[in-house]
Amino acid sequence: MKNIALITGASSGIGEATAHAFAEEGYNLIITGRRANRLRELKKELEREFKIEVLVLCFDIRDRKQCEAAIDSLAKDDRAIDVLVNNAGLAAGLDHINDGDPNDWDAMIDTNVKGLLYITRKISQIMVERGTGHIINIGSIAGTQPYESGAAYCASKHAVHAISQGVRIDLLGSGIKVTEIRPGMIETEFSLVRFHGDAKRASSVYDGVEPLAGEDIADAIMWVVSQPDHVNIDEIVITPKAQANAYYTKREI
Ligand code: NDP
Ligand code: 8X3
Question: 111 in ligand 1 pocket by Cβ < 6 Å?
Fold first, then answer.
C-alpha cells in the first residue's frame, strides 16, 4: 500500500510544489484548497505522470464545519494519512496597526491559526489511532521576527511556532513527529494575495533578489520525511542567500 500525504493549500506555491515532490516519491495524495479547477488540474497531471491516486478536497479552511466534514468524508483507506503538511495560509495587507484593515486580520488569523488547528485536530486523531504520522507546519521567519507593518501576520506565524512546539509535546509518545519549517522570501502567489492583486507591487518584493521557489521548500520537506523513524527534525529556517533574516535583504539593483 502506498503512503498518503495530505497537503493543505495545494492549489499554488509551496503546496503545489510539495504535491509534486510527494507524487514523485510515489505517495498517494489528498490535496486541499478553495480553487477546485486548479486542484482538479493538478490531480489529473500527477495521476497521469506518477501513476498515483490523488483525492481533491475543496473547502475553506477558515470554516470549522467544512474542515470537519471534509476529513469525515474520507473513506477508510484514505484515512491512513502518513504525512500532514499544514501549508494553507496567507498574508493580507502590509500596514501600520492604526491603518490596518480588521478584515485582513480576520483572514490571516482564521486561516493561518484557526484553520491549521482545525485540520491538525482532526488528522492527529487519526494519527493517534494509527500510532504513527508526521505533521509538518509551514511557519515563517515572521514567526520569530516581527517586522514593521506585519503585526497581525507575524502574530499568526508566532502562533504557528507556538502550536508546533505545543503539539510536539501533546503527541509525545504517540508515534507522531512534528516539524515546523520557517521560510523567508519565496516567490509564489503570496505577495499577489498580500497586496490584493496588485501585481506590480507584488513583483517589486523580489526586485534585485533571487528568492526561494516553492520547490526549495518541497525539497526540505522531503528531506524531513526521509529521516529514520527515531529522528524528529524539530525546525528548519530557510532563507534565500540574499536574505539574512526578516530585516536584512541584500538587493542588487
Ligand atoms: P500561495 O498564495 O501561492 O498559496 C497559498 C495556498 O493556501 C493556496 O493553495 C490557497 O488555496 C491556500 N489557502 C489560502 N487561504 C485558504 C483558505 N481560506 N482555505 C483553503 N485554502 C486556503 O502562497 P505560498 O505558497 O507562499 O504560501 C504557503 C504558506 O507558506 C503560507 O502559510 C505562507 O504564510 C507561508 N510562507 C510563505 C512565504 C513566502 O514568502 N511566499 C514565506 C514564509 C511562509 P486557495 O486560494 O485555492 O484556497
Ligand atoms: C513570509 C515571510 O518575511 O516575507 O512569511 O513576511 S515575510
Answer: yes
Using CB distances shorter than 6 Å, the residues near ligand 2 are 140-142, 184-185, 246
- CATH number of the domain that 51 lies in? 3.40.50.720
105 belongs to a structural domain: yes
Taking the whole predicted model, whether its pTM rises above 0.90 is answered as: yes
What's the grid cell of residue 250?
541584500
Do the beta carbons of residue 108 and residue 150 sit within 8 Å? no
* pLDDT tens per residue across span 104-131: 999 999 999 999 999 999 999 999 999 9
pLDDT at 253: 84
Average pLDDT along the chain: 98
Nearest-ligand number for the alpha carbon of 195: 1
Query: Which of 153, 206, 247, 248 is flagged as catalytic?
Result: 153
Residue 66 lies in a domain: yes
Active site residue 147: no
For residue 95, the model assigns a pLDDT of 98
Helices 13-24 and 36-50: crossing angle in degrees, nearest 10, is 20
H or E stretch covering 37: helix 36-50
Boundaries of domain holding 72: 4-238
Residue 96 contacts by C-beta under 8 Å, 6 or more apart in sequence? 148, 149
Looking at the domain assignment, is residue 245 inside a domain?
no
Write the residue with the smallest CA distance to atom 2 of ligand 2. Answer: 184
pLDDT digits (tens, 9 = 90+) for 34-58: 999 999 999 999 999 999 999 999 9
Question: Number of folded domains in the chain?
Answer: 1
Ligand 1 atom showing the smallest separation from residue 15 Cα: 25
Which residue is listed with cell 491549521?
A: 116
Of all ligands present, the nearest one to the C-alpha of 216 is: 1
**Ligand 1: which atom is nearest the Cα of residue 183?**
43
| Residue at 16 is within a domain | yes
Query: What is the mean pLDDT of the segment spanning 69-86?
Result: 98
